[in-house]
Amino acid sequence: MTKRQAATAAVEVDKASFSYKNIKAIDDLSLEIPRGISFGLLGPNGAGKTTLIRMLVGLLKPKPGSIKILGQALSRRTAHLIGYMPQLPSLYNELSIIQNVNFFARVYLMNDKRQREKRVEEAIKLVDLWPRRKDSVMKLSGGMKQRVSLACAIVHKPPLLFLDEPTVGLDPELRFTFWEHFAELTRQGTTLIVSSHTMDDANHCDRLALMRNGAVIARGTPAELRKATGKKDANLEDAFLYFIHREEKNA
Amino acid sequence: MLNQVFTIAGRVMLQMLRDRRTMVLLIAVPLVIASIVGVSIPEKQMLDYIAPALLAVLILFFGFLLTGISFLRERSQGTLERLMASPVSKLDIVGGYLLGFLLFAVLQTMILFFYLIYVLNVSFHGELWQIIVFEIIIGILAVCLGIFISVFARNEFQMVQFIPLIILPQIFLCGLLWPVEQMPEYLQWIARFLPLTYGVDGIRALMLQGQSLLDIGKEIGVLAGYAAGLMVLASLTLRRGASS
What we know:
Number of strands of chain A: 10
Distance between the termini of chain A: 42 Å
Oligomer: heterodimer
Radius of gyration of chain A: 18 Å
Strand order of the largest sheet of chain A: 6-7-8-3-9-10
């Protein structure tokens, strides 16, 4: 990473709002996420995490507001810089694991066949599914589908990876494995933006933004957020409740 | 980008080929329908009138149904959302589906055509390539119609409900079973607005009257106009359901 690259944030959101008809899902939100870290968007269901992620990957347009990723205004030309793992596995059930991953590699403009095949193999190996690469996705368990979905999101080696509740429905062992994969990706320089409502996921993140009613109510490292409560043994759940109460008092 | 169109078309074809039951049904069902028509209409003149129209009707029916359900799955499984977040454009997606399904449509047309000519002995005075070109135009219309209508369905059951609404009236009014000219005037007026009417007229002109594509410019123009309009509607509404 050059000095100039390091100076620009991975994600810059400036006063963004978004409404579904009359319901305000994102409310005048501003956020800056540095490069090369795992950043958690933490909040209860309906806090606006998925809407924010959909805005960040270009599926929804902020009205009003603006979004930059890696220093560039968000557009279709920046789409190849992004990897996106939606909440649902979002795979072609009739196709095999390798066919799914290969398809998304081609979608992300990996036109060199040899390079693509190498990357497809690496991505499938990273999620430990290489021996089952020829299996139809239809035959896989929910956890395996999530792993294939992750492989599809990372196959083109995006510098910025958005993961929308990636560990929902996974057993603790698989959740741990997922976080090992994520840690490996951040070690390789990928910026990870993970939405979650579980404190277990939050503890794995380098930095967090606590979301409620479409707004960020607190941000910082897990240690900083815990410290803000003033309690010695506070966990992230205590911190989250503390910031909610503070928000309600201020309102 | 053409590359992306081929990528999506390749995936659409791969999905179809891996679903062997659908592939068998795609080929067998038109032959079964043609056989029933052949057996139930012993009079050669009547069979000559009805059988060619089947080529237009079945391409519209299968094109609409297969694309509609495939696209509905694409929306409900979340893969469309994933594609919309990628460098692929809306036109790449529509173009990929068109190319992917049209190859099956051409295959289906050829099998049905040879069955009609060599097994049912239906009269034929035209050229096969011209029929394939005309069928491709109907196929494009069917694929765009399927993509567009899939926006209004939330599940496969709802998608199937659109057949009696969108396809059946066209089959009854297109002149498949009796000439449009013999219908009440208000039905003739409605028939003039339905694309399948032009599809059936065109295919009969090509197969029975020995006319060429140049002679059926009006039919081609109307079908191409419908196809272009539906392609724009399909592209404009593509995002719906992917992000809502």
